[in-house]
Amino acid sequence: MYKVLGAALLMAALGACTTTHIDQFRQGTTHIKKGESIVILGRRQNIGYDTAGTFVNCVATTVATGDDRIKVVPEQEFLDAMFPYFEPRTAPMRTANLKQLMTISAAKKRIEDYGIEYIVWVDGTTLRSDRSGGMSCGIGPGGGACFGFGSWQDDSKFEAEVWDLNTLESVGSISTDSNGQSYVPALVVPIPLIAQVEAGACSGLGNQLKLFIGGKGS
After folding, report:
1. Residues 120-124: what's their mean pLDDT?
2. What gap in Å lies between CA 183 and CA 18, rounded to an integer?
3. d(CA 175, CA 188)
4. Cα-flanking dihedrals φ and ψ of residue 173, to 5°?
5. Domains in the chain: boundaries
6. Quick one: pLDDT at residue 2?
7. Average pLDDT, the chain
8. pLDDT per position as a tens digit, 45-89
C-alpha cells in the first residue's frame, strides 16, 4: 500500500500543472498614451454565476505592473463613482447601451474625469469536474493519520471584451482557457497539489490585454 501511495505522490508532483490557451479577436485599432487609463470590470449579470472579483482584481494587477504597464482605475472605485450606472441591473450590456449612457452628461463627465480610454469587460468562471479517488482518516493511540488519493480537473474559461470610449464600439476580445489536474495524496498527512488554473488564466489574459490595448497584439 505504501508503495502504491508513494508512486501516486510522485505522479501527482510531476503532473499537477496547468495548460493555458489564449485566443484573440481584433476588430479595431487600439493605442494608449501616458496618463490615460482603462477600467476592468467583471460581468455579474449571468444567471448561475458571477465573475469573481478576485479574478478581476488579479487581471487588473497584472495589467498595471511591469515595464509595459497600463494605468488601471480600481473596479470598486469606478463602480462607486459611477453609481448607479454600472450596477448589475443597469450596466450597459452592449455598445448600443454604452452610447445611450454617454448621452447622460453626468455619466460622461465622470468617465472623462478618470481619463478612461477603454472599458474591459471580463466574463467567465472556473468549473471543477472528473473527481475521483477517496481518502480515509482516523485517530489512534499514536495520533491521527490519513490515507488515500484524490484528484479532480479544474477548467478556467474567461473572456475579456474591450470597448473603445472614443468610438463607443467594441474593438475586440481575448479569451483564455486554462485547465489542469489537481491531486491530494495522503500518506499520513494530506499533501494538496493544486493546479493553479485561475493564476494561469489571469496571467495570460492580463499580459495579452497589455499587448492588445497598447496596439502590439495582432
Report:
1. 96
2. 12
3. 41
4. -150, 155
5. 22-128+155-179+196-213
6. 44
7. 85
8. 766 677 889 999 999 999 999 999 999 999 999 999 999 999 988
* Residues contacting residue 185 through CB under 8 Å, at least 6 positions apart: 5, 8, 9, 12, 148, 149, 191, 193
Where do the DSSP E strands lie in the chain?
18-26, 37-42, 71-73, 116-140, 143-164, 169-190
Q: How far is CA 198 from CA 33, 44, 66, 124, 154, in A?
A: 30, 18, 20, 11, 9
Tracing cell 501616458 back to the chain, one arrives at 34
Grid coordinates standing for 163? 470597448
Question: Taken in order 19, 45, 27, 36, is the CA torsion positive or negative?
Answer: negative
C-alpha grid cell, residue 161:
471584451
Q: Grid coordinates representing 130?
A: 472528473
Tell me, rounded to whole angstroms, the distance of Cα 67 from its chain centroid.
Answer: 21
Question: Class assignment of domain 22-128+155-179+196-213?
Answer: alpha beta
